[in-house]
Amino acid sequence: MEFDTLRLSNFRQYYGDQSVKFSQDEDENVTVIHGANGAGKSALRNTFLWLFYNDVDLPQPDHVANERAMAEADVGDPIRVEVKLEFDHNDRHYWTGRWAEYEKQASDDLDGELVDEGSHVQYMDVDGKTVTPENPNTSLERFIPKRLSHLFFFHGEEIDQLSRQDNQDKVRDAIRNLMGLEILERSIRHLKWVQKNAFEEEMEEYGSDELSEYIVAHDEKQEKLSSKKERLLDLEQSIEETEGELASVEKRLRELEDTRELQEERDKLEEREKELREEIEEINNDVRETCSEYGYLVFSMPAVQKTAEALEEKRDKGEIPSEIKARFVEDRLDMGQCICGRDLIEETDPYEQVKDWKTKAGTNDLDQAATNITSRLRGITKARSGLFDEIQDDLSRRRARLDEINEISERLDDISDQISGKAKEDIQELERRRGQMEERITNLDQEMDRVENEIKRIKEQISDIESDIEDAREEEEKSKKARRRFIAAQRAREELEVKFESYQDQVREQVDDTVKEIFDDIISKNYWTEIGEDYSLDVYKEVGGRNDLISSVPTSTGERQVASLAFIGALTYLTREQYRSSENNVYFQGGVYPLVMDAPFGYLGTEYQRGVSKKIPHLADQVVVLVTEPQWEAEVKHHLERYAGKQYYLEYHDPEKEVDIEYEYTEIREEV
Amino acid sequence: MSRNNPDTEVEDEKIAAVIERVLQAEQDKLHLKNPRGIRKDIEDIIREEVK
Question: What is the total count of domains within chain B?
Fold first, then answer.
């Protein structure tokens, strides 16, 4: 940072618009601002504090508006207080400013009421482009951290406090902040927090054994599914095979259906044949029985014939009565009608003829015997004739049946020819098989339905598990990611811790060496400084061969002031060197800082004033020294004036000494 | 280089990038006594670098 121009308006005792153009000359890098006690040196130093931090390190810190301006304003008028600073920083040219507007509340109101305030920052980058940051307050604070402001905008009469043992915190803070240790320290602390509170919790939140459990369950279900699918294939194959068999049986059945009628006919014919053969057997039996019973008629006929002829002969000879009984003839004659129906009238020829038979009629006994024999012979003859008829009839019937059997045999032959070549399978057996197959197919279908339902259910379960697995994988992935981030935070922290451990010793030694060197340049006596392990800035003096710590000795304020100055100088030197080096170090980038020294020679004796004044131009690239006239004498003026590129005088107007003014104010006048 | 488990291994380059970005984030808020939001910034940096 290199100051260009400071402009202030109505700030504290600076009435109206005032400005300071700082020296930017490399060889005359000191801007000296002279001012008597009370003239406004501290107020001028506070313009920087107000601008950068909206803070004032003065009595009545809220009283920033100039009293004269307030007095001259009417009630209700706004009074604008403003500080503007133009400077260069990190290759950019900045225009910064802070303003506050006060409103006069009463005629005797010299403080006013704050009605508005603001700040602004604008810069031009290396390309000439103007940029206005959105948050000017933050930007203003970033140039020089507020907690380090006491190093760069210091009051000489207070600076010795740095080397007091109770102020080691400030020393440590300054070293750590400016030398990069604080960045390392904060990084370590924050990484540790993030590691634990962000990623460790996340690991715990997402880490679980569910995934492995789901995978085991998934494998089991897949195995079950495979088994069911195999079963389903078996069933499909079985059904296919059974259906094939069924089709085959049905085909056979269809084929057999064609022969059904023939078979039925054959069955009937065979049955008929069987009946006929039984009938024939019966006929044969009848014939045998007839022959057995009446066969003698056939063999007795000649004898019967001969007997009949003999009887006839006898009758003809009248040896045996006629066949007609006399009584019968008399009855016929009495009736007047012949057995042939002709009327028998007496004295007619028929009558006489029949009457003639009356004489021919035998006696009753012989006639009866002859008649009986003749009748028996006739009966035998008739029986013989009947026997033949009966046998003939039986034979005819048997012949008829044999003929029918022959016809049946021919038909059976024909049927046999028709169904020959076709398997003589049992339709019922085929039907039974078909029924079995259909039942089997039904059962297989039902089992297929069950298996398919099971497969569907298992698939749904697998789908659910896969969804769970996906969720669990996501969870695990998150857990792994959290784990990796946890490890990243841990490793980053560990690396920074290692770096911090070595670097902090290095920094302390580096600062210690530089402070010693600057201190030695100013005080060549047997004093020396040391940055302690606890970051205390101590001043030692060798007394009688032993080291006495004198930093806490009240009478040694001068040495402590010089030690503090050397410490500030060491930090500005080291940060500047780092900034200008080619080393790319994120945590220690360094920087160029100007020094604004208010009364740097306050408690110093002549010897120390000389040493300090000789060293001041070399402590920083740009130095602003606010001094009283008594301090700007002799050694100080001698050694500093040649480095003073700009000098200003604070012209203080005191109403007690100037009758025409009512309120004090200061004007800044450049000394040419 | 890093932990044995390949699932949770973090490359050195990523660690270096995390460190550099964390330091820069701290640098940006170094002027603040209480750098609000820096933890979230660091968490985000790690989340971005380690995906």
Answer: 1
